[in-house]
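Hello again, I could really use a second opinion on something today. I've been staring at a protein lately and its backbone has me curious. Can you walk me through what the tokens say about the fold? Take your time with it, there's no hurry, and the full record follows here:
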Amino acid sequence: MVKIHIDDQRLGGVIAPELHSQFIEVLGGCIYDGIWVGEASDIPNIDGLRLDFVEAMKAIAPPVIRWPGGCYADTYHWRNGIGKRSERPVTFNENFGTFELDTNQFGIHEFMELCRLVGAKPWLNVNLLSGSVAEMKEWMEYCNREEDTTLKKEREANGSPEAFHVEYWGIGNEPWAGGGNYTATGYADEYRKYATSAPSFKKSMMDTSACPMHLIVCGPDGNKPEERVAWTKDLFEAFGKYRRPPMYGYDLHFYNWNISHPGDTDIKFDREGWYRVIDGCFELEDVLNEQYALIQEGLAQLPSTEAMERLHPNRCELVVGEWGNWHGSAFMARPALFQQVTMRDAITSALTLDIFHRNCSKVKMACVAQTVNVLNALFLTDGRRFIKTPNYDVFEMYMVHRGARLIEDLCSDEASECKKIHVLASLRDNMMSVNVVNTDYDCPETIELCLPENYRYVSGKVLCASAPDDFNSWEQPDLIRAAPCEAPVMAGSGQFCVNVPAASVSVYQFIKQ
């Protein structure tokens, strides 16, 4: 039996809700069919937005949604997506094998309506590669200006008199690759121009009520060990020369690649493939620690004067704009980058969210890639057909951690150490939430959770399947669903024995009496 001791006095940082954010892009079937079906569609919709998607997203209340990309951001011109939809230009999308016409029916107003309906804040990525500083500034003005400027009136004429109050603005996307093949120094020079040009939307120099403008710097390719270190060092060294620009966040991208074994696909794998992918997700924790330390070193070398500190505080939040499993079979899929989601993916999604939770003092926001029909999706669609993947259940089960305090230093009895059992706990008010992820391919486990004596069990859920390679299909859309779990057996005061199935994610809640 594995014994886990949880001390509710050992509290860490607050788990930011933004760690449960989403990423969508005009890629494959993510937007068109996945989210946008059009007002004339016979698929139930709200002003063209797929109704079943909106309702399911609203239920998990994503804190932030990142759009329009991704690689698409650096080919996207925001004016193509405003005005009458019947008059919008038709362009062509070549990103990641999409190779399809883009009708631009889903633009900024449609995106903002989606965010409003599901209760999310928007994160917009501006076009640094093929756009311009002027284009970015006009987009910001169009979105956020409240005064009666020409751009505000244009937004009003297009149906939105109220400002969108967009806070998060990414300056470009992956400039080290498809976003321009920049050097870190070259990107830093470009970032300075774009960031300096961003409006503040203040009413006066002393106005503190204006919508904050959180500008996000492009961080490195997290999958390149040498390059990611060099990029971060070089970038902050460049920012350390002369006056530094404003920056709120540093956007790291990391994918759990599964591309070196052709026989291992999104739905076909053996025991070895199971553990290879699950073990691969843990690299992210090392990357987060490495990059956080490099950011702190970089901030320490930035020029610091009294005036500079007032303008731009000496801090920069680590965020993860894209994360998830990426199987090699997705490269050949149609629609582009389509993947099924098995229990293997659900397990790695749970473990990855727990990595973010455990490092909540270092990372402030993270967006899974991508929400619909692409890679590590929460939803799959095909015409009228709609599936919530097991990843959806993980996000729903883990909502209990949002805004809670991390409980640190969970410990196991030395004799009961089990590397296939992963536990995380948080506390909000008097409610303790405990995750137990069993990564064992085929063996269940009994866990003894040792809590302070004044806790009693309230409820629990478990996500598991009959086989590790099970997934929700069009024929069996609810084959894998979270369900109430077996209640713990009391082994003594504050001691709860729980049985966790093989290849499963469980969440238990206990209340302090």
Notes: The chain has eleven helices and 26 strands.
